[in-house]
Amino acid sequence: MTHSPHPDANSIPHGEKEDEAVGGGFTRRGVLAGAAAATAAVSIGAIDTPASAQTPEEMIVFVQLSAALTGIAADKLAAPNFAAAVRNSDPVDIKRDYFAWVNQRHPALLRRLLQIARDSQKPPAADPAKAIIDKVNAAPDTKYLGRSIVLMWYLGAWYEPNHLQELERPNPPQPKFKVISSKAYTQGWVWRVAQAHPMGFSEMQFGYWARPPSLLRPDFIGN
Amino acid sequence: MHDLVPANPPNPAPPTDPSKLRLTLDLDPKKPVDAATRDSILNNIMETGIPCQETVTGNGPEGSQKTQLEHRQRGFDFYSWLTFIALNSPADGRTRIDKSLPNTKTKWEDRANFKQLLDVMLLNGEEPEWDKKSPPPGCESEFKPESDMGIEMINESYDQPFKTGPLIDQQGNYGLFDILMNKEMFDYIKQHKLYSKTEQQGEANSKLKVDFPAGENFPKGGTPGHPGGIIIKVSWKILDSEAEKRKFHTVDAVISMPRHGPEKPPCLRRTLGLVGFHVMHKTETRLQWIWTSFEHVDNVPEQQEIKSRKLKRSYSFYNPACTTCPVNQTPPRPWEPKASLGLKFHSPFKSQIVRRTPLTDDTKNMNKKFQEIVRGTVWENYMLLSTQWPSDFNCARKKASESGPDPNTDLEKEPDMNCAPAPTFLANSTLETYSQGDSPLASSSCMACHGNATSYQAAPRDAEQPGPDGKPNFKFFNQTDFTFMLEKAR
Amino acid sequence: MAAGSCIECDVAIVGAGFAGALVANELGKAGKEVVILEAGDPVPVNINDYMERFYKASAKVPESPYTPEVVDANNNLFDPSKVNAGRPTVLSLLAKGGFGDWTDPKQSYLIQKGPRPFASTYDRVAGGTQHWLGTCLRLVPADFKMKTNYPFLPQFVDWPIGYDDLNDWYGKAEWELGVSADVQEQAFLGIKFPDTYKYPMPKIPRSLVDAAVAQALRSLSKDETAFLEMETSPTEIRVRNLPAARNSQPYKGRRACAGNTNCIPICPIQAKYDPTITLNEATETGHVRIFDRHVANEIVVGENGRISQINFMRYALPRANGCVKAKIYVIAANAIETPRLLLMSKHPDPKVNGVANSSDMVGRNLMDHPYYVAWGLTPTPVYPYRGPLITSGIGDLCDGPFRNKRGAFRVDIGNEGWNFVIGGDPNVTTLDFVNGMNATTLNDGSPRKALFGRELVEKLGDVFTRQFRIGFLVEQTPDLENRVTLSEIRDGLGLRRPEISYNLSDYTRQGIVAAYRMKNLLFSKMGVKDCTKEVAKNEPSRFEELIDDKIVPLSYGGAGHIMGTCRMGSKKDNSVVNSDQQSWDHDNLYLLGSSTFPTGGTANPTLTIAALALRAAEHIAKRV
């Protein structure tokens, strides 16, 4: 009893593999491909933010920026497959929530960071990630917003950039932060870096803790 | 009138010509479904039955604004409808579903194809036989095996999973729940004696990695395709009036009330109407199973419909006239039905249920198309809620590193053994009534919950000793491959 | 409620926690009419709201999922004088003068008179203190006879019952809650089981952290362990699986553990038992009614010293005052709220302070298990943050000749890295390395590291996988001056709040010292780099001890084990209840819960609470 269901006019002959294997690691070519795909008007889907809505290209650059700053592979940040993220295969799609969150609070500064990410990938940049980090660190405002973004990806919580600056001074106040949402808490990357899972949110099965975890690379954080 | 023609033998020879499997359905909402499309789809299902395996793609037509995820979701929703139609087609195998009557026995109601859970998990772990159906206790003289559905009322027959509560319809009747499995599931359970709690706990099963068969369209070596494991969960409404019987798929049932002590419980005869329909299907490319849920269109309103006051005149589990009734609350206790009241609830309480998560526009559109295809039968009164599927493709088809029998599902994936379920949450208003929502883990998600399912298997004695690689010997414990059925062994 | 008409029933229970729920269920199953007055919110339809509150909380303290809410939208503590049925929070155990000042009645529900803070908290909601870990240990036989066994310690008394009296009841409690453990592993220090006894479920598999500790303690020299002053100095210290009411299999329709590492404060899949399960069974009998948001505020004594009714204040709308009349009354409101209610009520003898208090023991002998923690980095990864919060511990050191001189301790092996000990990891460590801070002492270079990208991943991956923490529950002496009394400061209903006087005796502090030495032994055997932060000078729980000629600053926390304030005994002049948990003063009044424990041992009290509750239920059912 077999079937191959194809709801649209373009049906695919049976037996062809699903196209999840397309793409993989992120490369410069990936950026161009992404940009081209953007101009082909394949959208990422509905966007919630009213003011200065993101474009697909901005989302790609946001992920590249975040990948460089966090050290997590872009593929994984835009899970489950970044190359597909242009056309979005991610049911959780936390990247959209994060972009909207930062955009609401620091739209202009965010765009400077995005431009840094774009500029750092133009040839002859040998190590785009390092170039992004160096440029972000070069000025206090980009530096602290960069840190806020990293903490957001890692912890699902928001530490205001001004507050981070305050915390570095002598006699700092108690750190203050806000959990962005229950969904964001469950998507925190720090837990995967620890080869574990958010406390209170396990997607694993009984007894997993009796044996060592899977490898950090590539299973948890990508390459 | 009853359709009493015996069912065809199952498993007709599958087609070998892939081009025969291509189906198309134009989803343009402005276009009606033409007769040729209807015939092509329904004839195809008659000939080949349920899909053995899904085939979906992230590509859409040229110029589509939708995302890969949405394309795949549509593919799964299409697969779900084909599955629904195939399972609910007349059991005789010769009548097309658009010619069926409300009470025409369906393929899944035919005991040649599916078996109820309580007929597998027998008292005292007795060995079950595929062909044997015992009447529910107390119903021995009443039960007519050819035409009746027999239901034994245990807690799970009226109380939702984890004892979250019963469902009381607007006529004050209990909703009833049942679980069925196909032959491939049954064969695996029987082979490993998992129908017996004692056997589950025994030495022989301490090293068994429960891994149900997975469906394939075209297995290696040219063997015929097979569906793999399929599990169905249904919810029924007791139908009192003739008018209602025309809008639901119905079945004649004999029901034995909950047992108390050694005396035989009373036996009740009722006409039941189908209101909820879950299907779980394991395939080679989705080893975490594919999860589908359907409901009757008159069950409950969506939140949006209440806000905009676009309500129907009546619902099975909601009273549009009551604007002050608290919503989605459990009934007052006690919950167990009283034998003296039959299947009527002991207090005037009626469940006032609202669907918290609306259907997507794509799914609503898909529903309209298929409802046109089965127009003229009760099946046009059913709708798909959504399909939940593991969206991380590489994860979903990953096999375990050690060699083992097929399918050899990997139980060591981390951090997400559910392989990114899409959508994240899914709840049927009649089956997961009280855990609707979007709170991680607390709210209903087929895969997040079923991923926790375990059996009574005991860890092997040498489990804590290090293996040859120096690591503890555990590869798996008592995970049951996403089904709660094994914990019902007695 | 019409004036002059009380709710009537066979048995009235105050408190819908562990003891209250179990008693209600047993009586309901026997067909007795039961009313429970619960001060807090009802059992919810699902735990969606609890989980949302938890996920969104910045401070994921044990109280965080439950109501009443701990902090407002600005993360300030609610003023307890405005809360109807308030309760303590760990956030109000902080230094004087700042946020969470432990002496500030505007932040701390308990009016803490000191000299040291009482560091444990509880929930006040249907289901009681359901933020518990799940540990289900039996007391060891010696714990019941501290006066007989260690006669030179004047504070200790004997329980009027012994281990043998509770053996069968422990078994019943284990099956009621659903405890997973293996009998062979749990028979130590005299604990024994009936011949054919089996726990309901096999043990929870141990974690990699447990394996590392077990390995390190496998071969020791007698010199190394001499400080423990056991009967003979051990050359191996055994790590044993921790019996817990946590499913390792399907049990009574509930799922098995999936390692959410969140037992405290809440299991997202209810694999850990909590009393809402029993409350649901109880109401299902059709004979039990729960009145939530009904605060019992007075026990009224009538003729012959018998209780005639209990008055309550209902703050669920519409607000009302009312009463309940029963044949038998049970107070099961925890070891602070129970004495509070007794003290708020009038004894017929004007010389006696409070109902049931002719012995003057009500509120006295307040005990906890002062909790000593230490933490560090293991040399190779042990992969914490995985599995239940605690899967194994060390119980073999809980009794021995040393108990003539110092409190015993039980060892908790934490699976959650530094989450608990450093005030909310992984946030703290991550913040350190992203923002160049050093709250953890790990970022101690000059300048401090502030990392991005791959360097950050490497650093955090290295640190988190090696985080290790150990905890010690230390035995506390019952001291007359550690007590609950009534303050003049009131809560949102105008009722007097509990006032706490609390200190650690020398015996107890020496127990902490021994724990400190044990920690040193363990860390050196494991090769753990000790990262335990030096206790700040203004830390209210700080104290100093001379250890091996050095002044060592130590501190303690609360284990959440509140005991002793209505102790049971064999004589009415120095105890509040008899061995049946029945008040000496009032024939139809029973007190349940850990308030009746005369001594605390080192075992988590819940299983003993459950065993005593089931035993009392059988006794009460015969009288109604």
Counting helices, strands and paired strands, the structural category of chain B is alpha+beta
How much β-strand is present in the residues of chain B? 15-25%
Give me the Rg of chain A, rounded: 19 Å
Structural classification of chain A: mainly alpha
The Cα radius of gyration of chain B reads 22 Å
Elements of chain B, N to C (H/E)? EHHEEHEHHEEEHEEEHHEHEH
Q: Shape of chain B, please?
A: globular
Q: Which of globular, elongated, flat, extended, rod-shaped describes the shape of chain A?
A: globular
What percentage of residues of chain A falls in helices of 4 or more residues?
40-55%
Total DSSP helices of chain A? 12
The overall pLDDT of chain B, averaged over residues, is: 90
Query: Biggest sheet of chain A: strands, sense, closure?
Result: 2 strands, antiparallel
* H/E element sequence of chain A: EHHHHHHHHEHEHHH
Query: Taking strands numbered 1, 2, ... along the chain, how are they ordered across the largest sheet of chain A?
Result: 2-3
Q: What can be said about this structure in brief?
A:
The complex is a heterotrimer of chains A (223), B (490) and C (624). Chain B is an alpha+beta fold.
Explain what you see.
The complex is a heterotrimer of chains A (223), B (490) and C (624). Helix content of chain A is 48%, strand content 3%. By secondary structure, chain A is mainly alpha-helical. Chain A has one domain (16-210). Chain A is globular and about 45 Å long. Chain B starts with 21 loop residues before the first strand and ends in a 40-residue tail after the last helix. The longest helix of chain B is centred in the N-terminal third of the chain and has 21 residues, at 68-88. Chain B is globular and about 70 Å long. In chain B, strands 2, 3, 4, 7, 8, 9, 10, 11 and 12 form a 9-stranded mixed beta sheet that branches. Chain B has a two-stranded antiparallel sheet with strand order 5-6. In chain C, the strands form 5 sheets. Chain C has a 6-stranded antiparallel beta sheet, with helices on one face. Chain C has a 5-stranded parallel beta sheet with strand order 6-3-2-10-20, covered by helices on one side. In chain C, strands 1-9-8-7 form a 4-stranded mixed beta sheet. In chain C, a hairpin with a 5-residue loop joins strand 15 and strand 16 (496-502). The model of chain C has no long low-confidence stretch (mean pLDDT 97). The chains are: A mainly alpha (223), B alpha+beta (490), C alpha/beta (624). Chains in contact: A-B, A-C, B-C. At the A-B interface, strand 1 and helix 10 of A face strand 1, helix 1, helix 2, helix 9 and strand 12 of B. Strand 1 (4-5) of chain A pairs parallel with strand 1 (22-23) of chain B.
